[in-house]
Amino acid sequence: MFPLMKRGVDLSNVEVEIPKEFRFPVYRNALRILFSYIYLFVAGAKRVTVTASETDGMLTLTYRTPSRSLLRRLHESLRGEPAGLAPIPKGADAAFELGLLQRFVGAMLRQLTPVVAYSQSEQELSFSFLPAAERQPEAGRKSVVVLEDRDEMFWQVECILAEGYEVRQVRSVQQALEVMETLRPAALVVDMAMYAGAEETFLEFISGNRNRLARTAFVLLLSWNARTDIQRRLIMQADSFVMLPQDVVFLREIVDKAILGRTDARQIPLDGITESIAGLVTCTTREQAEFIRRIVSIIEEHIDRENLGSTFIADRLAMSPRKFYRLFKEISDCSPAEFIKNYRLEKAAMLLLDGRMSVKDVMSEIGITSRSYLYREFSAKYGMTPSAYRNLGGKESVPGGGGNDRAADRDDGEMDDPEAE
Question: What is the pTM of this model?
Answer without folding.
Answer: 0.47
